[in-house]
Amino acid sequence: MHRFPKGRAHACAVMSIALPIALSLVLFPIAAHAQEHTTDAATSLLLHLNSSFTGAAGETPTQATGTSYAAGVFGMGANLPSGSRLSYNASGNLAAAQGTLEFWVRPDWNGADGQDRIVLAWGTWGGLLVCKDGGDYLRIIVNRWGPGGTSERGAGLSVASEWVAGVWHHCAFTWNASQVQVYVDGELRAQEAVGFTLPAIAATTFQIGGEGASGPLAGRLDEVRISSAVRTAGEILESYARGLTFASLAIAPDPLQISVGWTVTPTLTAVATSGPVLDVPSAACSWTVVDTTVAKVDVQGRILGRRAGSTSAVALWHGVADAVAITVQAALAAPANPRAVGFHTTARVDWDPVVGDAVAGYEIERRPSGGAFAAVGRVLARTSFNDVGLTPGQAYEYRAVGIDAYGSRITALSTACPATMQATSAGLSRHKNLELLVAFYTEGYAANDINRMTQGIRKAIEFYWRTTEGNLNFDPTFLYIDAPLPADIWSPEVEADLRARGVRDGQYDVAYLMGLDLAGCLGPYHVLGSTVAALGTVCRVAYPENLAAVDYSVAWTFTHEMHHVLERLDDITGDTTPDVVFCHFPWNYPALFGGEGRQLDWGPHYNGIAVTNRLYGDSWLTFPAPYDGVLECVDADGDGLPDADDRAPRDEAGFGSSPAQPDSDFDGLGDLAEYARYDFRGTQPTVPDTDGDGVLDGADPQPLYDVAPTLPQLAAAPVIDGVLEPAWPAFASGYYYTSAPDPFTLETYAGWRAEGLYLAFASSARLRFHVSVDGSGENGRWESPVRHVGGATDTDNLDNRPNHIGDVWGDGNDITFAHGLAGVSVYDRGAIAGAQVASTFTGGVYRTEVLIPATLPPGAGYTWYPAGAGTPVTQGLTLEQGRVLGLNVTVAPVVGSDVWEYSAAWSGLFETHSYVDVTLAGAATGVDDPPATGLPARSALTDVFPNPFNPSVTVRYDVAAPGRVRVSVHDLAGREVACLLDGQKPAGRHALVWTGRDARGRPAASGVYFARFVAAGVAETRKIMLVR
Fold first, then answer.
1. Residue with more model confidence, 406 or 290
2. Up-side HSE of residue 912: CA atoms within 13 Å toward CB?
3. Rounded to whole angstroms, how far apart are CA atoms 319 and 314?
4. Which end of the chain, N or C, is less packed with Cβ atoms under 10 Å?
5. Is the domain of 118 the same as that of 236?
């Protein structure tokens, strides 16, 4: 970076320097003027432009008209006014796949002139362009206009307020398959990922200073260098420095204190005579040490303490010099108690921390049996390391050493500890592991806020662990920085600050930025080499929990923004098995259905992200390098949950399940499925019937809620009068979550008729109700079995179509009504025609009855049947026997004019943001009710519905006489997939539900299965089809 001085004292650029110990006189040559480049192995074309357009190696232009020469940075330069043409052969001089373009430019225009100013143009479709565009961005574009199905890539920065006519600037642009970068005056100012090999360019010549007659540069150029390699930041800084003269150099810290064995990289800054201050790499300087037995400087510019004592050193760079006093003391103790555990292809290494503020992190060395130690990784702010890519059966040794923020070793090496890899993966679980850096600038936050925000990140990490069914883990490093944010977004200033604190490029897969006064909640960014990042703290979506120790705004912001990061990881790695898709809808309802509606639970909310997470399954493990880290854990029972491993957000020890049994309570729902079945909490792993409804969790379509799986058809329309007659069929008792300070009772009743949906509530509190309806049902709000028929696409996100993420626009503008208030309306949109509501209050009970008509206005929960381009042919609810609806109900106290769904004391019947699917049944009020016409004449498998099904199918059967009954599901090969029942049943008509999961609780694949019924000598089979 460079900057301008603020009253800082610097060592002068004089001919001698006084040193604290004997080094009486040191003479340095002072650079009298700027120094031109000489060619090196990477140089393709070097144009000094000193009254000649011929290159340093004799390259001649194919065209040079309308050009002239004028004063430059290195003597003379080229003047390229409007109408000039300067072109060269591309072969041997410029490569499409990778390279660097460097030059000095003096524009005849201000940065805000709004005109195209082209420096280099090579080809059109798929070509390379370097310019200042009409939007006043200095930019590079590769794969121009994106032919062949790949997008163009580019990076740039605004120079509208920075550049003025007549002022020289040094510019550098790099490109390759990984990224494009833009440097101005030695500083990296912009970069973006590419993610594919750049194609060849057919054009045989390239033009400097325009593109034909278009985009004339109208300015001067000097010292143009084109390289076949991507130049490093140090090389580009050196290229910039060649065009300057300097007044002084300063070394910090001064004096410098290190320990024996420490290696410290000092910070050096140089002040140019024209004003800028540059950060100078230590390795770029020429060093002299007085007493090399005390300390020495290696080729990387690191000062190494060799023995206790004092000495000094002098650094020389571009004719300016400074001296630093060095004191070497005894070394810090090594990290103690190193220990390692080998798995199959990974190992875990731990050690005790070294006490001392100077220790910023640790470097880890590994050697195979019979080999030599070599550094394999480093960590900051933690004392554990996950090593990957190891050889099964191989024995290794590990040791650790403390490092400072510069990456210099400042402690002795620990003793070695062994780890032997298992020959097989038996008894281990395997999980995707993304190394996460949380860069938290804590200035301005109280200690309690810092702790709550940290727990918010951990809450979100566990949300991902749960909803990917243990397939994805973020392994966090929390880097707490007691300083203000260098900038309000991810920027080169933030990256430079993190590098100065020890963060290496590519050290982390993903990163998250927190601090006061961020620009918002944003992502993804490409930072620190291959790291993909996001930021934010203040966005909020309701979470059904209210722990004082957790900042739920941070939990949601991380959840939302990191899903953008995961989508980008999927994009840049080309991993499409299947796509990681991000659903940013529903923000508002489409104009087709009445224009802008207020979005209640904005963004895709938790359930949307949960569904896309589950879609990806174990394909999280397929991310290629550099994002290919994995976590291996001991999993003795093979159920997918680690037994006891603190690297996992939740293991069997923390969940309470048995590490020796994949289904701890033998209820047909495996331990992992018990943990991951829902979005926010698991069912009870040691209680066979979590909701106490008499159905084992494995056979219960909703094991967390005591809720009726069907809605009965009402024989007669209830009178909506608030009386709540006994004939109302019960639907649910109680609620899943409440933030209310005082407990209350709530009973919910429901039924249907062709004209509408009937709901009733009885509560000890006066409530406002928010009802959300999914008219298509069958898999929560997201399955969309009708939305994508006939080739129609989602109105918001085309990526939703292949994975059927989109669904009705029924979440958001909920149907709302309240006890004691008139009217049923779409939240924030107005009354629903034909709806009825009535309420009473007697005996301390608030009763509310409502009719929600089948015909609904936009935003209230309808199914969109697309035809052609997506024109709706029906709107509202289709109410007929066998139809599946999705329902969710949120309640809150009736308080003044507060009609927001998630008020301070809201409660939910079910998990927030997700639906419970119910089937519209016939007039029977329960599947196990005694038949009105007597007992069945014979035992039989009577029905399976719906068929095809997703996610569950009801199996009806008759039992003529009491006895043992077995109902099971088999695949096409006859193998048993799940046993739904094996026990005694009374005579009567019965039903079971298969949720599409196998005996271990894992989702079964799409395809044909057979439901088999065996009882009293009767054996019958029905074919069923699971469609996911």
1. 290
2. 23
3. 12
4. C
5. yes
